[in-house]
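Now for one specimen:
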Amino acid sequence: MIIAVLKEITPHETRVALTPQITKKYIDGGFKVQIETQAGKLAGFCDNDYISAGATIKTTASQTISGADIIIKINSPLPEEIKLFQPLQTVIADFKQAIPPSLASKQITCFALERIPRISRAQNMDILSSQNNLAGYQAVIKAFGLLPKIAPLMMTAAGTIPPANVLILGVGVAGLQAIATAKRLGAVVFASDIRPEVQEQVSSLGGKFISTTPNNKKRDSQQENAILKLLPQIDIVITSALIPGQKAPLLINKKMLKLLPSHSVIIDMASSSGGNVEGSINNQISEFDNLTIFGGGNLITELPNSASHLFAQNIFNFIKFIYPNGTLKLDFNDEIISATCICKDGKLLLKDK
């Protein structure tokens, strides 16, 4: 059984679907691994690292794919990659950007790992959780790198510097990690989410949840009013609200931006999906009324070494699950298989989101 790993050609991508450490696990499990040369360079892994782990280096994508049983990638394959695929191969990747219709014509089987169900036995395969966790951390590091003041309270002979105030909008995996990271740096952290049940998680990390009364009809407006009153005190805003398959909700408009202090920094983690912040540009830093706004929809690519390690481990766990005895086993009564298998026997099982 041969596993092929391609060099990612999607713009701005720095991660790789396999690390030398996970390569050794495949080799020890009886798999053979062939990887395109320089595939891990941007993530900090050289060809010799893979060779030492037991992999074979191939010069081109075509050579890498040839004869492989399984192809693993970070992102959905592009047309120039799909044309190289061979019948009966299995492709495993993150297809959240697009599900190319041409996949079906290749008579291959495809698994979309972003569709892994949020159940306990699938946690070690969940790429969204592993990658968003790191992205939430990096959002805070990026924000303080752009902020012209320090995070913690500092008392000196020259005077006292108050701690930075951070507002997190959206308390999913990324938001929770952002809260934890900002608290570790010494900031005062506020958080808001449309789900009142996350208040306990926010509190457990040391954050202050922007609470409302239990009246559902009044909750949204009350929460918005509470945020508006808080904005003039905030140094950093981090937004991470996403709706699967839809444009990201607008959480911060220009009217709200005008309420922030002029030195404030805003990190929009949803910028690649339309943005939570009005005017944010994906992968770019922009300014609005002396505010700094960063479109951080691809923050994970700033941590390619750590992100690749977790992604590669997620895929390894998934492959162990679908190849229990070295043979592909597809039980569509299993919710993990039914949720992730998007293409089989020349048919697309799920339409693009």
About this structure: The CA atoms of residues 43 and 305 lie 5 Å apart.
